[in-house]
């Protein structure tokens, strides 16, 4: 897919560059609420075991579904790569981002 593969490959390319540099001690991944709450049955609380249901997103195709799928799969691949290559990975999920849009209208 034109959105999903570049998202995953972009994250992995950054992680490979960090590994190659040998000076990066920790990598912080800015995640999204879209990686954990796009599920058929909503939860009240989330933890590190919660992920958006990629198949549900693909099936229902709700607004933003490609973003949810690409961020979820990219973060899962990042965790896998970090574990396999002993990289200290931290993810953060900002609850609200405030500020002007980069574009004049909402995409």
UniProtKB/TrEMBL annotation:
MF GO annotations: dihydroflavanol 4-reductase activity; flavanone 4-reductase activity
Pfam families xrefs: Epimerase
Q: Which residues, by range, are in coiled-coil regions?
A: none
EC number(s) recorded for this UniProt protein: 1.1.1.219, 1.1.1.234
Name the keywords, alphabetized.
Flavonoid biosynthesis, NADP, Oxidoreductase
Extract the InterPro entries matched here: Epimerase_deHydtase (IPR001509), NAD(P)-bd_dom_sf (IPR036291), NAD(P)_dehydrat-like (IPR050425)
- Alphabetical GO biological process terms: anthocyanin-containing compound biosynthetic process
What highest taxon heads this organism's lineage?
A: Eukaryota
Q: Which reaction does it catalyse?
A: (2S)-flavan-4-ol + NADP(+) = (2S)-flavanone + NADPH + H(+); a (2R,3S,4S)-leucoanthocyanidin + NADP(+) = a (2R,3R)-dihydroflavonol + NADPH + H(+)
List, for all copies, the residue spans of the domain called NAD-dependent epimerase/dehydratase.
Answer: 2-101
The entry sums up its family as follows: Belongs to the NAD(P)-dependent epimerase/dehydratase family. Dihydroflavonol-4-reductase subfamily.
Q: What is this protein called?
A: Flavanone 4-reductase
């Amino acid at each position: 897919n034109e959105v999903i593969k570049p998202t995953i490959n972009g994250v992995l390319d950054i992680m490979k560059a960090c590994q190659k540099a040998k000076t990066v001690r920790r990598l912080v991944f800015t995640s999204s609420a879209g990686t954990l709450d796009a599920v058929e049955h909503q939860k009240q609380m989330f933890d590190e075991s919660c992920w958006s249901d990629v198949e549900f997103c693909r099936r229902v195709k709700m607004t933003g579904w490609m973003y949810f799928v690409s961020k979820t799969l990219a973060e899962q691949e990042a965790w896998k790569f970090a574990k396999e290559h002993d990289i200290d990975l931290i993810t953060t999920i900002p609850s609200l981002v405030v500020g002007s849009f980069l574009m004049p209208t909402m995409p």
